[in-house]
Amino acid sequence: MSDLKDTLFRKKKNAWFVSDKGEIFGFADSYKKFLRICKTERETVKFVNEYFLKNKKDREFILINKNKNLALVKLSEGSGMKIVASHIDTPRLDLKQNPLFEDSGLGLFHTHYYGGIKKYQWLNIPISLHGFLIKSGGEVVEIKIGDDISDPVFVIPDLLPHLSKKVIDEKVVKDAFDANKLNLICGSLPFSDEEKDQIKLNVLNYLQETYGIIEEDFISAEIQIVPAFEPRDVGFDRSLIGAYGQDDRICAYTSFMAFFDTTVSDKTQVVLMVDKEEIGSEGNTSAQSNFIFEIAVEILKRKGIEPSFANILAFFKESECLSADVSAAVNPMYKDVHEVDNAAYINNGVVITKFTGHGGKYSANDANTEFVAKIRDLFNKNNVVWQVAELGKVDEGGGGTIAKYISKHNIETLDCGPALISMHSPFEISSKADLYETYKAYKAFLG
């Protein structure tokens, strides 16, 4: 009976017993350095571009779109592309365009949340500001304050339990935390002893002296509010990583590392990183933009092929894509929201998700079984530890990725990425072993 089970049952593997532990820990250390530097889309694009310029080889080039998304390309002689596509935006808060005001003896910033957050998770944690601002006249100013131990941090104040009974405690969570009250403390020292707006004036005076900024410059600014946490090892055994922004920079990092560790393949290799996934992939730096056509046009030109619409469509038809995004690992405190036979588990390797969406697979990419079979065989051949999962129970869970926007171009597309605990929180948790298996998966696919 046991022999029959061994033959017929699919065997789950623990990734820690497949790959070398030294390689796993070494790869994780480099990943943490990446997370420490790259907390916004622009910072990620800058980091990847600088890495590319230092490490590029023959037949490789980079395309950057508005400093918010990019494509790494390695040309081949064959037709079509092998694409690993991730997103580099992440849930956060943004400063509003008229952010600064004064109330109750405090200088405060108005914010607007971006993507799917739990608002209460952002209260009373140390916050840093990462900004990109263009002053009148065109001068560019970059702001990064709160990450260094010598920097001040910022905070959204919570209400003490002694006074929160009626205001917060007796309400359901979605009503208890008002998005219009996610205001950031940025100062309290008055500029002078005059009565009005002296704290606001002092904040503006600091910004003017430090960065040359006046209040109107906020109109042309992108200033993101992100946790001031450092990436940290989690657990006595240091087997896990806790950090902000792992959805989806864990896939961005593993994919571009895989790109540099592969040689020329039968199809042109593309590592695509896009913006705006967390808000529906709208806009000119998202997966729905025309950037994928620009990539195809540039590849065809460099291959000496006329980039006509018909040739682009034919090129897409010969292409394949792993939509590189994270899945939800089972949280042992909330197992009941998962269907356990089709859920992802920490340390069980990279996750294949055949279909996404919600309910009756609405708004889903549902990968063709021929492509799923090809990826399954590829991973088995290359000793990649993998698992399959949906995002929660039917009619209870669900979610979307950029897969449906890639596959609409007649590109075979399958969701594939590691599982996280506490996804979309300011401190997401990943497995170092799963991180490494994800790198191996993308390397096998691109190779």
What does this structure look like?
There is one protein chain. With 447 residues, the protein is an alpha/beta fold. The chain folds into two domains: 2-90 and 244-446, 3-Layer(aba) Sandwich (Aminopeptidase); 92-227, Aminopeptidase i, Domain 2 (Roll). The chain contains twelve helices and 19 strands. It has helices at residues 2-8, 21-37, 41-55, 165-169, 173-176, 198-211, 246-260, 291-302, 309-317, 369-381, 403-407, 432-446; strands spanning 60-65, 69-74, 81-87, 92-103, 106-114, 127-134, 140-145, 184-187, 221-227, 232-234, 240-243, 268-274, 320-323, 327-328, 350-353, 386-388, 412-417, 419-420, 428-431. Strands 1-2-12-3-13-17-15-16 form an eight-stranded mixed β-sheet, sandwiched between helices. A six-stranded antiparallel β-sheet has the order 7-6-9-4-5-8, with helices on one face. It has a three-stranded antiparallel β-sheet with strand order 10-11-19. The model has no long low-confidence stretch (mean pLDDT 95).
